[in-house]
Amino acid sequence: MLLEKYNIMNRNFAWMILIVAGIAFGTLLGDHPTDAQAPKEVAAERRDEEIIEQLKQVNAQLKELNTMFRTGTAKVVDVINPEVK
Q1: Which residues, 6+ apart, have CB-to-CB distance to 33 below 8 Å?
Q2: Average pLDDT, the chain
Q3: What is the rounded CA–CA span in Å between residue 41 and residue 26?
Q4: Which pLDDT does position 84 carry in this prediction?
Q5: What's the pTM value of the predicted model, to 2 decimals?
Q6: Predicted local distance difference test score (pLDDT) of residue 77
Q7: Are 67 and 59 a contacting pair, CB within 8 Å?
Q8: Three-class SS string for the chain?
Q9: Which of 21, 24, 41, 69 has its CA 20 to 30 A from that of 60?
Q10: Residue 63 CA from chain centroid, whole number
Q11: What confidence tier does 9 reach under pLDDT thresholds 50, 70, 90?
């Protein structure tokens, strides 16, 4: 009788350990990006790099315009409806 009681407890304990290990293993696998997510991350990084490059170009153009306005070499061109003939 005593052996049967411990055998049942050991079996329940073993199942509990297996369930906890399965949950922990599933959580660890869930944290890593899958192959389907990897291209999205690469595309996002490329887009970020393109945006940064465009912002650098805008910054350079603004600096150039600022220099032109300060020196008085800027020319104003007024274009009204360039598409109309």
Answers
A1: 41
A2: 79
A3: 22
A4: 64
A5: 0.43
A6: 72
A7: no
A8: CHHHHHHHHHHHHHHHHHHHHHHHHHHHHHHCCCCCHHHHHHHHHHHHHHHHHHHHHHHHHHHHHHHHHHHCCCCCCCCCCCCCC
A9: 41
A10: 31
A11: low
List the chain domain ranges: 1-30, 41-71
What are φ and ψ of residue 77, in 5° steps? -115, 125
Higher pLDDT, 2 or 35: 35
Residue with tokens 């959580």: 27
Q: In the structure encoding, which two tokens stand for residue 7, read together?
A: 């055998």
Report d(CA 66, CA 63) in Å as an integer. 5
Q: At 31, which amino acid appears?
A: D
* 28-60 tens-digit pLDDT: 777 666 666 577 778 888 999 999 999 999 999
Q: What CA–CA distance (Å, rounded) separates 7 from 1?
A: 10
Q: For residue 36, give the amino acid letter.
A: A
